[in-house]
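To the wet lab folks,

You asked to see what we're planning to order before we commit. Fair enough. Below is the target structure as tokens, and below that is the sequence we designed to fit it. If anything looks off to you, flag it before the synthesis order goes out.
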């Protein structure tokens, strides 16, 4: 695994999941221990069932955390959002702005800029 210097945020997110995984792993061990011990001691059936259920819940939490840690992420994921926002905001708008800023004079049809309110050809107000 190479040190991802440009990917510090998602690396931090991956490292931050480790305590969560450790805790859920302890929950799994506790659930197994609880289920095994209670059934060996002849406790009512609810105790081992609780232990197994506890283990299943903790195991699913552990797997979710593990998947979140190793799920393939776009390496440029942190830089992608601003880029997308840039694409949405800048090029299309500037592309059709030049078209939108002119309109045809209602009298002679001359292209008149949006900011000009009097036709330069026929003098009609637009
Ligand atoms: Zn005109």
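Sequence we intend to order:
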């Amino acid at each position: 695994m190479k040190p991802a210097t440009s990917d510090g945020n998602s690396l931090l997110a991956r490292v931050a999941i480790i305590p969560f995984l450790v805790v859920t792993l302890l929950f799994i061990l506790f659930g197994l221990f609880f289920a095994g011990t209670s059934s060996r001691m002849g406790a009512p059936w609810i105790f081992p069932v609780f232990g197994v259920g506890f283990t299943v819940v903790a195991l699913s939490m552990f797997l979710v955390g593990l998947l979140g840690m190793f799920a393939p992420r776009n390496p440029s994921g942190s830089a992608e959002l601003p880029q997308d926002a840039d694409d949405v905001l800048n090029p299309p708008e500037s592309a059709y702005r030049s078209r939108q800023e002119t309109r045809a004079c209602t009298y002679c049809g001359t292209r008149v800029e949006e900011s000009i309110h009097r036709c330069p050809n026929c003098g009609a107000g637009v």
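Structural context that might help your review: Residues 76-80 have pLDDT under 50 and may be disordered. The helical segments are 8-40, 46-70, 77-89, 91-100.

Thanks,
Computational group
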